[in-house]
Amino acid sequence: MELSQYLKLRTRSYRLKIMKRKKCRVIKDYSSPYTDPWIITKGEILSIGEKESEWPGWIWCTNNSGKSRWVPESYLEIIGVTGKAKRDYNSTELSVKVGEELIIEKEEAEWFWVINQQGKSGWVPIKNVNYIKIIGN
């Protein structure tokens, strides 16, 4: 297969994948309290902090550099007071305004990982959005 044919098929496949994504609209503004993203990598060891929060399923974790954020409990293998990351994780929270339309990439413990119309990605609370349609239907 020629490179141009391969790229055409790959692009078509990606477009079809995007077309099946769910879309939502922001119904309540959300402003992230965290200005800088936090990235953890699979296998990274973290100190476990509090588990009780407004958001069940999230655990306050601190890395070796002393930086802390909420991490989905399902992303961690918890061993006593430490956690080992089961997969990579990006803590970026997206600040959004009422009326914005977002594409939903994934869901985790009452939060969506979304992409906004400017191409920025991040987590937003599910309670701040409503489904509007599945793209492509």
Tell me what you see in this structure.
The protein is mainly β and 137 residues long. It folds into 2 domains: 20-33 and 92-134, Roll (SH3 type barrels), CATH 2.30.30.40; 39-90, Roll (SH3 type barrels). The chain is 12% helix and 40% strand. The chain contains 1 helix and 12 strands; from the N terminus they run H-E-E-E-E-E-E-E-E-E-E-E-E. The strands form 3 sheets. It has a 5-stranded antiparallel beta sheet, with no helix packed on it. Strands 5-4-3-7-6 form a 5-stranded antiparallel beta sheet, with no helix packed on it. A hairpin with a 5-residue loop joins strand 4 and strand 5. It is elongated, with a radius of gyration of 17 Å. Residues 6-16 have low confidence and may be disordered.
Summarize the structure.
The chain is mostly beta strands and 137 residues long.
Supply the CATH architecture of the largest domain: Roll
- Put simply, the count of helices is 1
Bulk shape: elongated
The fourth-level CATH homologous superfamily of the largest domain is: SH3 Domains
Beta-strand percentage range: 35-45%
Report the major sheet. Answer: 5 strands, antiparallel
**Helix-strand category:** mainly beta
Average residue-wise pLDDT = 85
In total, the number of strands is 12
Low-confidence stretches: 6-16
Tell me the number of structural domains: 2
Order of helices and strands: HEEEEEEEEEEEE
Broad CATH class of the largest domain: Mainly Beta
Fold-level CATH name of the largest domain: SH3 type barrels
Helicity level, as a percent range? 10-25%
Span between N and C termini?
Answer: 32 Å
Strand order of the largest sheet: 11-10-9-1-12
Radius of gyration: 17 Å
